[in-house]
Amino acid sequence: MAKVLVIGGNFAGLTAALETRRRLHDKSHDITVISMKDHFLYVPSLIWVPFKEREIDDIVVPIEPVLRRHGVNFINETALKIDPFQSKVTTDKGNVFDYDYLVIATGPDLDLSLPGSDPALKNNTYIGTPAGALEIRQRFFDLLDNPGPVVVGAAPRAGCIGASYEFLFNIEYHLRRRGVRQKSPVVWVTPEPYLGHFGMNGVFGGSTSLKLFMNSRKIDYRVNAAIASIDKEKVTLESGEVIESALTMIMPPFLGQEVVRNSPGLGNEKGFIPVLPTYQHRDFSNIFAAGVAVDVPPFGTTPIPVGVPKTGFPAETEARIVAENISRVINGNHDLTGKPFGEIPGVCVMDAGHKEVLIYANHFARPRQFSVVLPNPTYNTTKRFLEKYFLWKARTGLARLP
Ligand SMILES: Cc1cc2nc3c(=O)[nH]c(=O)nc-3n(C[C@H](O)[C@H](O)[C@H](O)COP(=O)(O)OP(=O)(O)OC[C@H]3O[C@@H](n4cnc5c(N)ncnc54)[C@H](O)[C@@H]3O)c2cc1C
After folding, report:
1. Residue limits of the FAD/NAD(P)-binding domain (predicted)?
2. Which tens digits make up the pLDDT trace of 78-134?
């Protein structure tokens, strides 16, 4: 009997655990998920929380019943340390779990080294957590009473710039809809060399569409912009320009989670896991990683560094590769499957404030044969459908579905 331990229970962790279970026909193998959260969170819908279009309860699914139904154990604890030499994981409750195979699917932590970027200082806000989205809700409704300028964007090395664009278009839409847009100039600040670079060297038509959209919405923007600091009522660029702001949402770069940074020999200097195209650790063949936890170096250089967008589609793709490889190894087959991150298709629907843009690239990294951007100016129908679909998928545990 093999013991498979998965740390993290969201996109990558849930898929890896459920898919490993499904692929292992011998049900005596033990599969356990350890996650600090007892629920799946549909992160993409956080952008709607500040505007009361969603409550947090609308976008979470308790995972223990789903996992139990599929024959996977669940431990609601935080992993503090991984000993890759002894194959052990220690948690905040003092429990120690040993494993034959480990999957690290712990997602991102925030790199708050940019002066003033820590949301705890109240200069900046962060849309990527329930607490952050609710804090922005408070600040947004304060802004309606007391309108002022808004700055949205990304810090140098940030890799989740698409989410920041989505927040930008949503806040612009809601300021307009509530009649205070005239008194609230909106500025977009990005390290990208051009609009729509997204950390993946752009997609065909992306830059033009975004430029048209920014102009039609009267959003001022700075590209190739390195933010030097964020203060209470201003954002300062390294060029010396100071942009006034009453509400700031600057996406910070990501780090790997503390559990990886606290575990010598496991991650790189940023706490991400170096993997082979099989998503197997480069040094420990019984450790795999999927999702944001994986180290993906930037695709080329830009004047201001931009991180790679590690989105939901690659997180689930990697998790399926991991599940397949673990089940192969357990069954004595060491001929593993793999796909480098850059060759995974880039599939995304970007919300544009009750509108949307569908983005497809046959490879994340260039060279690619095909990429397209399709604006849907009528409504964000696909985005809303995907939310329902992924919440249904999490509730049913049908992780085999795309
Ligand atoms: C605002 C926003 C909007 C986005 N929109 C989109 C979108 O429209 N489309 C898209 O494809 N992607 C989108 N993304 C990116 C997407 O959310 C990520 O790609 C996805 O969440 C990555 O999945 P993951 O499983 O790797 O990490 P996560 O979803 O972050 O999950 C990590 C899990 O690990 C757990 N964990 C962490 N550390 C520990 C520990 N030490 N012990 C135990 N458990 C731990 C966490 O609690 C969590 O459950 C968006 C991101 C943001 C921030």
Report:
1. 3-291
2. 999 999 999 999 999 999 999 999 999 999 999 999 999 999 999 999 999 999 999
Residues 6+ apart with CB under 8 A from 189: 151, 152, 153, 154, 221, 222, 225, 227, 235, 237, 243, 250
Tell me whether residue 367 is in a domain.
no
Instruction: Give the domain CATH number at 246.
Output: 3.50.50.60
Which are the contacts of 295, defined by CB distance < 8 A and separation ≥ 6?
A: 256, 267, 268, 270, 272, 273, 274, 275
What is Dmax (Cα atoms) for the chain?
66
Considering the domain architecture, whether residues 135 and 237 belong to the same structural domain is answered as yes
Domain count, the chain: 2
CA distance 234 to 243: 5
Answer whether residue 387 is part of any domain: no
Q: What would the pLDDT profile of 5-16 be if each residue is shown by its tens digit?
A: 999 999 999 999
User: Residues 130, 237: one domain?
Assistant: yes
Residue nearest to atom 17 of ligand 1 (CA): 43
Q: What is the identity of the amino acid at 371?
A: S
Do 129 and 248 fall within a single domain?
Answer: yes
Do 210 and 270 belong together in one domain? no
125 and 246 in a common domain: yes
Rounded mean pLDDT of 348-364? 96
Ligand 1 centroid to residue 14 C-alpha, Å: 11
CB atoms within 10 A of CB 178: 15
Q: Which atom of ligand 1 sits closest to the CA of residue 40?
A: 49
Integer Rg of the chain from CA: 21
Residue minimizing CA distance to atom 27 of ligand 1: 107
Placement of tokens 């480069």 in the chain: 282
Transcribe 134-150 into DSSP letters.
HHHHHHHHHHHHS---E
Q: Which residues sit with their C-beta closer than 6 Å to ligand 1?
A: 7-13, 34-37, 43-44, 46-47, 78-79, 105-108, 127-128, 160, 163, 257, 259, 291-293, 310-313, 315, 348
Which domain does 336 fall in, by range? 3-110+254-341
Residues 6+ apart with CB under 8 A from 19: 319, 320, 323, 324, 399, 400
